[in-house]
Amino acid sequence: MPSKDQREALLSLLQGAEGKEWGEKMGWIHSSHNTGNSSFDEECDWYGIQCDSTLTYVTTISIEGSGLSASIPSIFCTNLQTLRTIKMDRNMIYGTIPIEITSLNELEILSLSNNILTGTIPTFVSGSGPSKSNTQSHHLKQLMLGGNRLTGTLPNHITGLHDNYISSAIEVLELGPNRLTGTLPSTFFHGMYRLHSLDLSFNRLSGSIPSIVVLRSDIQNHDSDEYDDNISLMHLRYLRLNDNQFVGYIPSGLARVINDEGKDVIAGQGNSLEEIWLQNNNLSGNIPVVLTELDALKHFYVDGNKLTGTIPSEICLSRINYNPKDDTLGFDVDDNDNDNDRDDGYNPCDSILCPTGTTSPRGVHPCYRCDNLRQNPYLGQSGNCRDLGQREILNLFRTSITTTTVSTFTTTNNNNDNISNSNVYEEEKKKKKEEEEEKKKEEKDPLSNWRDDVFLCSFTGITCDFHHNIIEINLHGLGLHGTIPPEIGFLEHLEVLDISDNSFTGNIPSDLRWAPLRLLDVSGNKMKGIVPPLLCRSQGLNKNGFDGEYISCDRIACPIGTYSAEWGRKMSNNRGCLPCRSDEISTVLANSKGCLPRDTGDGGSQKDGVATAASYVLLFMVVVCSLVSTMYCVARRRSNRRRANKKSYSEVFFFRDESSNNERNNVTEGLRYNSNAVSSMPYLDNDNNNVPYPHTFPKGMDENLN
Fold it and tell me: What element of type H or E holds 471?
């Protein structure tokens, strides 16, 4: 039977009254039933527990959907080193995932999805565990952590690194939905040759999607340095990166297949991709024609992006995105039938994306064409057609911006016919007060005149031409917060957009490529991600491509890890972006006027934390020293007073037997003799002799004092 330590580890999941109730319900802690089986109350017979053939070691805990509410203590991992399967999904598991779980060397399946876990994702890489040794699991095949509240960034390697050789057994990797941020590093996939299902959906990942290619399954040499520029996933069948913040292009390498010599073979041949989910990102460009060669493709979702052009007709096969429960098609679908020639009004390409100039509730069939006043330049857009009027666009911009005080507008009743004379004074007083408050708000809100009752060319920061077309938006250094709405790119005459030195967040929208911009300055903000590639290709933007220079994204903003102290972007070949030091990083794209201490992963920086702690310690020490010094001075003064009073009293007692004529003088002389004593006698207004009255001293005392 399993050891006492293993039993203790299992019972550590029973926490509080709810844990006890769950344990009794599942038969983990009761012994009132006697079934005649002597092993009934042993761990191997517990609900969801499996042991090895000798009934000595616990190998499986499978309690998914059982209603358990608990955290995962460290002892659960340290005392169950023989676990191969952990299935605890669809429960109420909370807290963080203990780092000790990465030390389970035999672990093959870890399923903790659909719980309420927080913290970061552990790294199942040798040398990353609590012992920093090579005991981490090399057998992990399924890692499912989706449906939680995990934060942080994706590690460079999540599994498989040992002895400087990248090889992973991972087959299923599901990390969405969660709250992950940052980019998707290309090294993340290295060694995942067996991966067939990847789900990073519903996170907050940004940047571009790394180039992914398919490697022929007959390749034996999996040297990690052989395909540095591509991620080779030979068995990938399901790819879900939807509902993130990815920009750039759809990787055409998804349809590539390379042989053992590293050369392309027939596109799509041997490619096993069945599902590609990329919808609801910020991807731009066209749909790669090479994707039409994916013979196994059944689901291809790319709506809700910034894609343009047309859909390759070869990919519009009736089997793709076919939902047998969707009766909106109105006809039976035959996998062998190409429906491009149908004349019933249905276009099979609409099941992939609605065309430009149309919209749809879901971005796919059924599609509705926009009217002449409204346009939609992108494929597969949902919702209403965009209204591209200048005032409407500025209203969207104003809505996305917050300041210290946002103006509010009140309406007053101008019909005073029914107002009695007794209320006129109160109404005037109220109106005057409202005007004063409005004036104060205008002083605090630099965009207070962005109102419907103001001519838009008179808005703060707005410049128009003679035809009242907006040609410049200059909001430099106004202390603004918010994001750049993509609709700004649809201002047909906008040449200058300067929002530098504010606190804007989010990404640079690729929609800005539609505007005829000559100058774009987003430096000095808190925006993240990368510059959209299509925006980088805008000829002439920030003098991009002038004088025969190669078009560069650095002309828009310095990339992460670099800076330009004056401009935040490359100005010329001689004034480019400089690299940050090794202990610094420019983690914010559009704040690239300087470098920050390297991020520790918790949203702050180690240097900032140390500096802040040191400042608090120093301040505390100064305060303590000041208090001690003050208390010492007060105590010293009180001590001197007590000594003075004691000596004075003794002198008064000593002189008490003297004659009455000398008694008063001697007492006074005694008080004056002690220079530390505080006299209560009045002083004469004599500048030359500030001594207490009467002026009598013992013989020789006046000489000593002088």
Answer: strand 470-474
What sign for the dihedral angle of Cα 549, 553, 554, 555?
Answer: positive
Q: Is 392 left (phi over 0), alpha (psi -120 to 50) or beta?
A: alpha
Residues 231, 214: Cα–Cα separation, whole Å: 8
Instruction: Give one word for 295, left, alpha or beta, with left for phi > 0 and alpha for psi -120 to 50.
Output: alpha
- Tell me which residue has tokens 């909001």: 475
Burial of 66 (0-12, 13-18, 19+ CB in 10 A): middle
The model's pLDDT over 51-63, given as tens digits with 9 standing for 90+, comes to 999 989 999 999 9
Question: How far does the chain reach from its first CA to its final CA, in angstroms?
Answer: 100
| Max Cα distance, the chain (Å) | 139
Structural contact between residues 195 and 171, judged by C-beta atoms closer than 8 angstroms: yes
Fold designation for 1-180: 3.80.10
- Output the average pLDDT for the chain: 75
* Residues 296, 241: Cα–Cα separation, whole Å: 19
Which tens digits make up the pLDDT trace of 95-139?
999 999 998 989 999 999 999 999 999 888 654 445 444 445 568
For residues 236 and 239, give the distance between their C-alpha atoms in angstroms, rounded to a whole number: 7
Domains 1-180 and 404-409+442-597 share a fold: yes
Enter the tokens of residue 205.
Answer: 């990942």
Paired with 519 in beta bridges are 496
The encoded tokens of residue 697 equal 């001293």
Rounded to 5 degrees, φ, ψ at 471 are -115, -15
Cα separation, 122 vs 275, in Å, equals 27
User: Rounded distance, CA 124 to CA 77, Å?
Assistant: 14
Instruction: Give dist(CA 273, CA 416) in Å, integer.
Output: 73
Can you tell me the distance from the alpha carbon of 227 to that of 128, in angstroms, rounded to the nearest whole number? 25
* Torsion angle in degrees (nearest 10) through CA of 566, 569, 573, 575: 10
How far apart (Å, rounded) are the C-alpha atoms in residues 277 and 279?
6
DSSP classification of residue 18: H
Question: Using CA atoms, how far apart are residues 115 and 229, in angstroms rounded to an integer?
Answer: 36
Phi, psi of 156 (to 5 degrees): -60, -35
- Tokens in use for 558? 């310095």
Q: 30: burial class by Cβ within 10 Å (0-12, 13-18, 19+)?
A: exposed
Name every residue whose Cβ is closer than 8 Å to that of residue 251 and which is 6 or more positions away in sequence: 209, 210, 211, 212, 288
Domain 404-409+442-597 sits in CATH 3.80.10.10 = yes
Q: Is the Cβ–Cβ distance between 585 and 561 less than 8 Å?
A: yes
pTM of the model: 0.71
Which of 122, 6, 118 is closest to 60 using CA atoms? 6
Beta strand spans in 97-196 (E)? 109-111, 116-118, 142-144, 161-162, 165-166, 172-174
Q: Which residue has 């499986």 as its token pair?
A: 60
CA 646 from centre of chain? 71
**pLDDT value at 628 more than 60:** yes
| Helices and strands (H, E) in the chain, number of each type | 9, 37
pLDDT band for 584, please (50, 70, 90 cuts). low
Residue ranges covered by each domain of the chain: 1-180, 404-409+442-597, 631-705
